[in-house]
Amino acid sequence: MYSLAVIPGDGVGKEVMKEALKVIDAMNERESIAFDYDIFDWNSDYYLAYGRMMPEDGLEILKNYDAILFGAIGDSRVPDQVSIWELIMPIRKTFKQYVNIRPVKLLDGLAGPLKSDRNIDFVILRENTEGEYSDVGGTMFTGENRELAVQNNIMTKQGITQISEYAFNYARSHDFQKVTNATKSNAIIHVMKFWDTVVEEVAEKHPDIDYEKYYIDALAAYFVQRPESFDVVVASNLFGDILSDLGSAIVGGLGMAPSGNINPEKEFPSMFEPVHGSAPDIAGKGIANPLAQIWSVALMLDHLGRKDLHDQLVAAMESLLQEKQTLTPDIGGAATTEEVGSALIAKLYE
Ligand code: NAI
Ligand code: MG
């Protein structure tokens, strides 16, 4: 029995979460796995009522769960900075979710914007807690027209080692052959050179997995030109952030992009969420694509040691896509969120 904290959030977050829970209910009935879940209404309405995004002991409450399933947050009545920095960020940082995983997989049945039938199947592992996204720095006034701003990029040996170790181990356990390092040590000569040195030390400890290194600018071009040549891409916080959105764009867009924020030691719960936000432009219309949220459930199953169930769920999504009957408008169909959820369950257990 696994305990699951569910935070649907705002807008389409609530709509797609409903379908993900339908899938979990169906699995509870039929599989040798059981989830006991609690739903938390920590969202923008909660903020407007209580002046905070979650209760004072919110993190204490979440700490006891095996995993967190998150929808999306964001509402025009609350500044985005508040909803993201007071809910998502504290969870990522407090629970040491230092790996952000984003699969870049072109599912069978989906052409993607590159209109290719190429075998695009790799993952981006982004360092999720340090590096370029640091709050060390500031703005200085040193005279009229001489203001300046400094922001430090802080990378630690421990931080680089643990994301690299995760990358090589992930490659091995998921039948990938190669790890690609996204770097820029030719221009960022202190921090990225240090990053390369540490990644390469780890690479030497994993001689069974191939290793290569590309500068981030060239790598971005290769993502478009030959995406089928990558397996596991390991990247710093900023580089991983940018590459992830590029990755999702080449395989079908935001409605098809899942992610996981992982604490590999399992000392704390990991959090799984679609990459997209609350999509206010389509919220309430019942046409949001629930597959990114459902795929995030699959990533959770993999993390909890049930790669078999992950694979089953992804196969059901592929069979739904190949059939092309029940898809939401963002990927060329005319079905509703609810219809896609139900059709997926039918595929899973037909
Ligand atoms: P967004 O991801 O909500 O929407 C971008 C575009 O993608 C929109 O055209 C939307 O209709 C479409 N889209 C998103 N999810 C979809 C789905 N499941 N099916 C079909 N189409 C989908 O990003 P945007 O508009 O920049 O942000 C809206 C709000 O979401 C903001 O308040 C923002 O801060 C928040 N946000 C929250 C995130 C989170 O909770 N992790 C991540 C990104 C944005
Ligand atoms: Mg991003």
UniProtKB/TrEMBL annotation:
Taxonomic path: Bacteria, Bacillati, Bacillota, Bacilli, Bacillales
Alphabetic keyword roster: Manganese, Metal-binding, NAD, Oxidoreductase
Transmembrane region(s): none
Positions of the Isopropylmalate dehydrogenase-like domain: 3-344
Source species: Oceanobacillus limi
Protein's UniProt keywords contain Glycoprotein: no
Family: Belongs to the isocitrate and isopropylmalate dehydrogenases family.
Protein's recorded name: D-malate dehydrogenase (decarboxylating)
Entry's EC annotation: 1.1.1.83
PANTHER family membership: D-MALATE DEHYDROGENASE [DECARBOXYLATING]
SMART domains: Iso_dh
Family matches, as InterPro entries: ICDH/IPMDH (IPR050501), IsoCit/isopropylmalate_DH_CS (IPR019818), IsoPropMal-DH-like_dom (IPR024084), TTC_DH (IPR011829)
A Pfam family reported for this protein in Swiss-Prot or TrEMBL: Iso_dh
